[in-house]
UniProtKB/TrEMBL annotation:
Residues 144-174 are annotated as: Disordered. Belongs to the ATP-dependent AMP-binding enzyme family. This is Acyl-CoA synthetase. GO terms for molecular function: medium-chain fatty acid-CoA ligase activity. Keywords: Ligase. InterPro entries: AMP-bd_C, AMP-bd_C_sf, AMP-binding_CS, AMP-dep_synth/lig_dom, ANL_N_sf. Residues 7-368 form the AMP-dependent synthetase/ligase domain. Residues 425-503 form the AMP-binding enzyme C-terminal domain. GO terms for biological process: fatty acid metabolic process. Residues 155-166 have a biased composition (Polar residues). It comes from Actinomadura barringtoniae.
Length: 521
């Protein structure tokens, strides 16, 4: 194959700055290569073999990157763990993934230690970045190990755990091809070619940089960050995303790509005009977003500001998806794009029959050459499948020319008086009101209609919640949204519960309204 892949690039140009941590410390490719090599030698001494797994409970930065680079060249599965989880939840993932080594950063010492106990992983397989009681220091593990390339290198993979709306999370596990790690990495960069991304030229005049805006335990964040690194782009990490800091970093590092969610757009757009215009964002070429439908006016505002560099896609950890170039989106506002060249889509009704174009149904996808299974759960793997397609439960429709539009998640759909109502459509209108910072819409019990529409709103900074604001929101919806889709009532909350990747934890808001009912429709 060609000359892409981190390990090849690092040997060709060890001085290339491959990563910048949240404190601004720069790491050369040669340094990261040496670190990942030492870790492979150390973990092989510990007995790790191809197909084994390791887990990391680490913040955004080089610690997790070294774990990733070691696993991907030694034929191991690397599972980054969500650092918001509790000890028992962490322990479940460590045990379920069959991890042969568990790495914890001292920032998460308390829950990490609880997780280790819960999982039963042996003491000599627990390692700490910093000081964690009962864990061996990472430095001790790698001390004296050579920084030379390990023998018998073979591609590994990440195994992310899906957040899942029901039951325990499941690891999405793919078969390892047993090929050269750089060849495997180069195949990973194929996805970026759909977005028109081009290789960087480390050390040359074509330096490119990718800004990581969300926690690295999310599949897309790891996937895009890793792929851009393998393409020769510098990875710039943030610890906690802030709108103005983001603009500052784009200017400072001449950021050419990033991966965002619509919440990031909304937060940046609410900055005062004089703040926004202070920063030069002209280096941005590929501002890629996903995870939630983006309201059409918000995306128009981003394109007006950043230019035609806003790319969108729809996909899942399990594989397959769509992509919307800026030009495609401007021609079909609101679309999440048409299918990837290696992907197929199927829209079906509740009986599994294909529906005509323009008719909403459950979205099924598949991707060529990427068989997966939910680790240890054949039943769940089969349950979400239709022939060789799978679904994550989203609803949408296809146009005659193959563009996909999302309606909502099946689980979020409101059925009121027999009518299907899509909360996303309502949220996309309310969020445009300048006194609203964030909004969630869902169904609550109604004895006559089955469900009625409830909105929970996070007011913008300095805006008082209450009846006056409710009246203003309803006045704003006048003429924009059919009355049957208006919320029957609006409650207020200081901050909506969102995962850092922008995904709204709607269940947390919805459950209290249903707790005295036998079933949540």
């Amino acid at each position: 194959m060609g000359s892409l892949g981190f390990w090849r690039l690092a040997q060709a140009d060890p001085e290339w700055i491959a990563a910048v941590d949240p404190e601004g410390t720069q790491y050369s490719a040669g340094d990261l290569l040496a670190r990942s090599n030492r870790l492979v030698h150390a973990l092989r001494d510990l007995g790790l073999e191809k197909g084994d797994g390791l887990c990391g409970l680490v913040p955004n930065g080089v610690e997790g990157l070294v774990l990733y680079l070691a696993a991907l060249q030694a034929g191991w599965y690397y599972t980054p763990i969500n650092w918001h989880l509790t000890g028992p939840e962490i322990g479940y993932i460590v045990a379920d993934s069959d991890a042969k080594a568990f790495f914890v950063h001292e920032r998460y010492a308390a829950e990490g230690a609880r997780g280790a106990e819960e999982s039963g992983i042996e003491a000599h397989r627990r390692f700490a970045f910093g000081d964690v009681e009962g864990f061996r220091p990472y430095e001790e593990l790698v001390a004296g190990q050579p920084d030379t390339n390990p023998e018998d290198r073979s591609n590994g993979a990440t195994m992310h755990y899906t957040s899942g709306t029901t039951g325990r999370p499941k690891g999405v596990r793919r078969k390892l091809a047993g090929i050269d790690p750089d060849d495997s990495a180069e195949l990973m960069t194929f996805l970026l070619s759909f977005f028109g991304c081009t290789p960087g030229a480390p050390g040359g005049g074509n330096a490119e940089a990718h800004l990581i805006t969300s926690p690295n335990y999310h599949t897309a964040v790891t996937q895009f960050g890793g792929s851009f690194l393998h393409l020769g782009h510098t990875i710039v990490y943030v610890d906690k995303w802030e709108a103005e800091d983001c603009l500052q970093l784009i200017e400072k590092h001449r950021i050419s790509s990033t991966h965002m969610v619509p919440t990031h757009f909304k937060r940046m757009l609410t900055l005062p005009e004089e703040t926004r215009s202070k920063y030069d964002v002209s280096s941005m070429k590929w501002a890629i977003h996903a995870a939630a439908p983006c309201p059409v006016p918000i995306k128009h505002q981003m394109i007006d500001w950043w230019g035609e560099c806003i790319w969108e896609y729809y996909a899942a950890t399990e594989g397959g998806g769509t992509i919307a170039s800026p030009k495609d989106w401007l021609a079909h506002p609101g679309t999440v794009g048409n299918k990837w060249p290696i992907s197929e889509l199927l829209i079906v009704d509740n009986d599994g029959n294909e529906v005509p174009n323009g008719t909403p149904g459950t979205i099924y996808m598949k991707m060529a050459g990427t068989e997966f299974e939910y680790k240890g759960d054949r039943a769940k793997t089969e349950k979400d499948r239709l022939r060789d397609y799978f679904t994550v439960g989203d609803i949408g429709y296809l146009t005659d020319d193959g563009f996909l539009f999302l309606s909502d998640r099946k689980a979020d759909m409101i059925i009121s008086g027999g009518a299907n109502i899509y909360p996303a459509e309502i949220e996309n209108e309310i969020i445009l009101f300048d006194k609203v910072a964030d909004v969630a819409v869902f169904g609550i019990p109604n004895d006559e209609w089955g469900e009625e529409i409830k909105a929970v709103v996070e007011p913008a900074a300095g805006v008082a919640p209450g009846e006056a604001l409710t009246a203003e929101i309803f006045a704003f919806l006048e003429g924009r949204l059919a009355k049957m889709k208006w919320p029957r009532s609006i409650d207020y909350i200081e901050t909506l519960p969102r995962e850092p990747n922008g995904k709204l934890l709607k269940r947390k808001l919805r459950d209290p309204y249903w707790k005295d009912r036998d079933s949540a429709i």
